[in-house]
Design a protein that fits this description.
Helix content: over 70%
Number of domains: 1
Number of strands: 0
Largest sheet: none
Order of helices and strands: HHHHHHHHHH
Oligomer: single chain
Shape: elongated
Strand content: under 5%
Number of helices: 10
Amino acid sequence: MKKLILGLIVVFSMSSCDELLDLLASTGGTSPSITQSEAASGLKQALEKGVLSGTSALGQKGGFLKNAAYKILIPSEVQDAVTKIKANPITNALASPYLTKVETAMNEGAENAMAEAKPIFVNAIKSMSITDAIGIVTGGKGAGTEYLKRTTSAQLKSKFTPVIKNSLDKVNINDPWTKVTSAYNTVMGKSVKTDLNEYVTDNAMTALFNQINQEEDKIRANPVARITPLLKKVFGYADAQK
Protein backbone atom coordinates (compact mmCIF):
# COMPACT_ATOMS: atom_id res chain seq x y z
CA MET A 1 0.00 0.00 0.00
CA LYS A 2 2.88 2.37 0.79
CA LYS A 3 4.35 1.79 -2.68
CA LEU A 4 0.99 2.50 -4.28
CA ILE A 5 0.61 5.80 -2.42
CA LEU A 6 4.15 6.89 -3.28
CA GLY A 7 3.57 6.01 -6.92
CA LEU A 8 0.39 8.04 -7.05
CA ILE A 9 2.07 11.04 -5.40
CA VAL A 10 4.85 11.03 -7.98
CA VAL A 11 2.48 10.60 -10.90
CA PHE A 12 0.00 13.31 -10.08
CA SER A 13 2.36 16.25 -10.13
CA MET A 14 -0.46 18.56 -11.18
CA SER A 15 -2.94 17.31 -8.54
CA SER A 16 -3.83 18.84 -5.21
CA CYS A 17 -3.80 16.85 -1.95
CA ASP A 18 -7.60 16.74 -1.99
CA GLU A 19 -7.62 15.33 -5.51
CA LEU A 20 -5.14 12.63 -4.49
CA LEU A 21 -7.30 11.62 -1.54
CA ASP A 22 -10.39 11.49 -3.76
CA LEU A 23 -8.54 9.32 -6.25
CA LEU A 24 -7.35 6.89 -3.56
CA ALA A 25 -10.90 6.58 -2.32
CA SER A 26 -12.32 6.01 -5.80
CA THR A 27 -9.75 3.33 -6.76
CA GLY A 28 -10.28 1.39 -3.58
CA GLY A 29 -6.59 0.52 -3.47
CA THR A 30 -6.44 -1.08 -6.92
CA SER A 31 -3.21 -0.83 -8.93
CA PRO A 32 -2.82 2.14 -11.28
CA SER A 33 -2.17 1.56 -14.99
CA ILE A 34 1.41 2.79 -14.65
CA THR A 35 4.11 1.63 -12.26
CA GLN A 36 5.95 3.63 -9.63
CA SER A 37 9.12 3.22 -11.68
CA GLU A 38 7.42 4.64 -14.78
CA ALA A 39 6.05 7.55 -12.77
CA ALA A 40 9.46 8.48 -11.34
CA SER A 41 11.15 8.03 -14.72
CA GLY A 42 8.51 10.19 -16.36
CA LEU A 43 9.09 13.02 -13.91
CA LYS A 44 12.87 12.85 -14.48
CA GLN A 45 12.38 12.77 -18.23
CA ALA A 46 10.13 15.82 -18.06
CA LEU A 47 12.75 17.79 -16.12
CA GLU A 48 15.54 16.66 -18.43
CA LYS A 49 13.56 17.76 -21.48
CA GLY A 50 12.96 21.14 -19.87
CA VAL A 51 16.65 21.52 -19.07
CA LEU A 52 17.84 20.62 -22.56
CA SER A 53 15.29 22.91 -24.20
CA GLY A 54 16.16 25.79 -21.88
CA THR A 55 19.93 25.53 -22.23
CA SER A 56 19.74 25.04 -26.00
CA ALA A 57 17.60 28.14 -26.46
CA LEU A 58 19.94 30.35 -24.43
CA GLY A 59 23.13 28.72 -25.66
CA GLN A 60 22.61 29.41 -29.34
CA LYS A 61 24.19 32.47 -30.96
CA GLY A 62 22.09 35.46 -29.98
CA GLY A 63 20.36 33.48 -27.22
CA PHE A 64 21.09 36.34 -24.83
CA LEU A 65 22.21 39.21 -27.05
CA LYS A 66 19.13 39.12 -29.30
CA ASN A 67 16.68 38.11 -26.59
CA ALA A 68 14.88 41.12 -25.14
CA ALA A 69 13.89 39.17 -22.02
CA TYR A 70 17.40 38.02 -21.13
CA LYS A 71 19.86 40.38 -22.78
CA ILE A 72 22.50 41.40 -20.22
CA LEU A 73 22.88 45.17 -20.12
CA ILE A 74 25.47 47.43 -18.55
CA PRO A 75 24.58 47.44 -14.81
CA SER A 76 21.58 49.65 -14.14
CA GLU A 77 23.47 51.62 -11.48
CA VAL A 78 25.69 53.18 -14.17
CA GLN A 79 23.09 53.44 -16.93
CA ASP A 80 22.69 57.16 -16.16
CA ALA A 81 26.36 57.71 -16.89
CA VAL A 82 26.10 55.66 -20.10
CA THR A 83 23.10 57.71 -21.20
CA LYS A 84 25.04 60.94 -20.66
CA ILE A 85 28.00 59.59 -22.60
CA LYS A 86 25.79 58.68 -25.53
CA ALA A 87 24.02 62.04 -25.42
CA ASN A 88 27.28 63.90 -26.10
CA PRO A 89 28.45 63.51 -29.73
CA ILE A 90 32.14 63.61 -28.80
CA THR A 91 32.04 61.17 -25.86
CA ASN A 92 29.60 58.97 -27.76
CA ALA A 93 31.99 58.70 -30.71
CA LEU A 94 34.82 57.76 -28.37
CA ALA A 95 33.07 55.46 -25.92
CA SER A 96 30.02 53.99 -27.65
CA PRO A 97 31.90 51.39 -29.75
CA TYR A 98 33.70 50.20 -26.63
CA LEU A 99 30.47 49.97 -24.63
CA THR A 100 28.94 47.92 -27.45
CA LYS A 101 31.90 45.54 -27.36
CA VAL A 102 31.52 45.14 -23.60
CA GLU A 103 27.80 44.39 -23.91
CA THR A 104 28.44 41.89 -26.70
CA ALA A 105 31.19 40.18 -24.68
CA MET A 106 28.92 39.87 -21.62
CA ASN A 107 26.12 38.24 -23.60
CA GLU A 108 28.33 35.97 -25.68
CA GLY A 109 30.03 34.83 -22.48
CA ALA A 110 26.65 33.90 -21.03
CA GLU A 111 25.69 32.07 -24.23
CA ASN A 112 28.92 30.06 -24.24
CA ALA A 113 28.50 29.17 -20.57
CA MET A 114 25.23 27.34 -21.27
CA ALA A 115 27.13 24.33 -22.63
CA GLU A 116 28.58 23.82 -19.14
CA ALA A 117 25.10 23.57 -17.63
CA LYS A 118 23.75 20.50 -19.42
CA PRO A 119 25.87 17.75 -17.78
CA ILE A 120 25.43 19.33 -14.35
CA PHE A 121 21.64 19.37 -14.66
CA VAL A 122 21.44 15.88 -16.15
CA ASN A 123 23.50 14.45 -13.28
CA ALA A 124 21.28 16.17 -10.70
CA ILE A 125 18.16 14.76 -12.34
CA LYS A 126 19.53 11.21 -12.60
CA SER A 127 20.54 11.38 -8.93
CA MET A 128 17.03 12.34 -7.85
CA SER A 129 15.49 9.96 -5.33
CA ILE A 130 11.84 9.13 -4.73
CA THR A 131 12.01 11.46 -1.73
CA ASP A 132 13.27 14.24 -4.00
CA ALA A 133 10.41 13.56 -6.40
CA ILE A 134 7.83 13.76 -3.59
CA GLY A 135 9.37 17.09 -2.51
CA ILE A 136 8.92 18.39 -6.06
CA VAL A 137 5.29 17.27 -6.14
CA THR A 138 4.36 18.74 -2.77
CA GLY A 139 6.30 21.92 -3.58
CA GLY A 140 3.80 22.84 -6.30
CA LYS A 141 4.33 24.71 -9.55
CA GLY A 142 7.97 25.30 -10.45
CA ALA A 143 9.22 22.97 -7.73
CA GLY A 144 11.33 21.03 -10.21
CA THR A 145 13.21 24.16 -11.12
CA GLU A 146 13.69 25.02 -7.45
CA TYR A 147 15.12 21.53 -6.86
CA LEU A 148 17.63 22.08 -9.67
CA LYS A 149 18.49 25.51 -8.32
CA ARG A 150 19.26 24.06 -4.89
CA THR A 151 21.33 21.17 -6.19
CA THR A 152 23.25 22.79 -9.04
CA SER A 153 23.80 26.52 -8.36
CA ALA A 154 27.23 26.14 -6.75
CA GLN A 155 28.51 23.92 -9.58
CA LEU A 156 27.02 26.17 -12.24
CA LYS A 157 28.68 29.25 -10.83
CA SER A 158 32.09 27.57 -10.72
CA LYS A 159 31.72 26.43 -14.34
CA PHE A 160 30.19 29.63 -15.71
CA THR A 161 32.72 32.04 -14.19
CA PRO A 162 35.83 31.07 -16.21
CA VAL A 163 33.88 30.92 -19.48
CA ILE A 164 32.44 34.39 -18.93
CA LYS A 165 35.80 35.74 -17.75
CA ASN A 166 37.40 34.51 -20.98
CA SER A 167 34.81 36.39 -23.02
CA LEU A 168 35.29 39.60 -21.04
CA ASP A 169 39.08 39.32 -21.18
CA LYS A 170 38.90 39.53 -24.96
CA VAL A 171 37.81 43.17 -24.66
CA ASN A 172 40.12 43.88 -21.71
CA ILE A 173 37.26 45.07 -19.52
CA ASN A 174 37.74 43.38 -16.14
CA ASP A 175 40.63 45.43 -14.77
CA PRO A 176 39.40 48.87 -15.94
CA TRP A 177 35.86 48.00 -14.83
CA THR A 178 37.02 47.15 -11.33
CA LYS A 179 39.02 50.37 -11.05
CA VAL A 180 36.29 52.61 -12.46
CA THR A 181 33.45 51.11 -10.42
CA SER A 182 35.49 51.11 -7.23
CA ALA A 183 36.16 54.83 -7.67
CA TYR A 184 32.54 55.43 -8.68
CA ASN A 185 31.27 53.65 -5.56
CA THR A 186 33.64 55.62 -3.31
CA VAL A 187 32.80 59.03 -4.76
CA MET A 188 29.07 58.52 -5.36
CA GLY A 189 28.33 56.23 -2.42
CA LYS A 190 26.91 53.60 -4.78
CA SER A 191 27.11 49.80 -4.75
CA VAL A 192 27.81 48.88 -8.35
CA LYS A 193 29.34 45.38 -8.53
CA THR A 194 33.05 45.79 -9.07
CA ASP A 195 33.33 42.15 -10.19
CA LEU A 196 31.87 42.13 -13.69
CA ASN A 197 32.32 38.35 -13.94
CA GLU A 198 30.00 37.89 -10.97
CA TYR A 199 27.47 40.34 -12.40
CA VAL A 200 27.29 38.51 -15.73
CA THR A 201 27.33 35.06 -14.10
CA ASP A 202 24.43 35.98 -11.78
CA ASN A 203 22.42 37.29 -14.73
CA ALA A 204 23.17 34.21 -16.80
CA MET A 205 22.05 31.89 -14.01
CA THR A 206 18.86 33.87 -13.38
CA ALA A 207 17.97 33.71 -17.07
CA LEU A 208 18.71 29.99 -17.23
CA PHE A 209 16.48 29.08 -14.28
CA ASN A 210 13.70 31.32 -15.58
CA GLN A 211 13.87 29.56 -18.94
CA ILE A 212 13.85 26.10 -17.35
CA ASN A 213 10.86 27.09 -15.22
CA GLN A 214 8.96 28.04 -18.38
CA GLU A 215 9.84 24.72 -20.00
CA GLU A 216 8.77 22.81 -16.88
CA ASP A 217 5.41 24.57 -16.86
CA LYS A 218 4.87 23.72 -20.55
CA ILE A 219 5.36 20.01 -19.95
CA ARG A 220 3.12 19.99 -16.90
CA ALA A 221 0.28 21.84 -18.61
CA ASN A 222 0.56 21.27 -22.37
CA PRO A 223 0.08 17.78 -23.89
CA VAL A 224 1.84 18.91 -27.10
CA ALA A 225 5.07 19.40 -25.13
CA ARG A 226 5.12 15.73 -24.10
CA ILE A 227 7.17 14.40 -26.96
CA THR A 228 8.12 10.90 -25.70
CA PRO A 229 5.89 7.86 -25.16
CA LEU A 230 6.72 7.80 -21.43
CA LEU A 231 5.85 11.48 -20.95
CA LYS A 232 2.57 10.96 -22.79
CA LYS A 233 1.75 7.89 -20.71
CA VAL A 234 2.60 9.34 -17.31
CA PHE A 235 1.13 12.81 -17.73
CA GLY A 236 -1.76 11.57 -19.87
CA TYR A 237 -2.74 9.19 -17.07
CA ALA A 238 -2.49 12.05 -14.60
CA ASP A 239 -4.72 14.24 -16.76
CA ALA A 240 -7.33 11.51 -17.01
CA GLN A 241 -7.71 11.42 -13.23
CA LYS A 242 -8.39 15.14 -12.78
